[in-house]
Amino acid sequence: MLVVMFPANVYAAGDVPWGNELSPRTATQAVFLAATFTVLVRHGRAVAVTCAEPSLSSAPPRPPQRP
Questions:
Q1: C-alpha dihedral over 41, 46, 52, 54, to 10 degrees?
Q2: Half-sphere exposure (Cβ direction) of 48: Cα atoms closer than 13 Å
Q3: pLDDT over 70 (residue 63)
Q4: Mapping DSSP to helix (H, G, I), strand (E, B) and coil, where does residue 53 land?
């Protein structure tokens, strides 16, 4: 959504010079994209690690031991 909406925002800004308004907005957009990419990559790694490790809850139950 960030990538798709940015050209529309630039167009809506009209004839605003790049140095006044669009440069800071472009830099902010780059920061948001980098943050989004970082979260997606770290979340993907966390999910991959979690799925690769066997969980204790998925182990079959042990039969009760009799004294």
A1: -170
A2: 6
A3: yes
A4: coil
Query: Do 15 and 31 touch, CB atoms closer than 8 A?
Result: no
How far is C-alpha 57 from the chain's CA centre? 28
| 60 CA to centre of own chain | 35
Structure confidence by residue, pLDDT tens digits, 15-49:
777 777 788 888 888 999 999 999 988 887 766 66
The two tokens of residue 23 are 């440069």
CB-based contacts of 6: which residues, under 8 Å, 6+ apart?
29
Nearest to 23 by CA among 10, 4, 36: 10
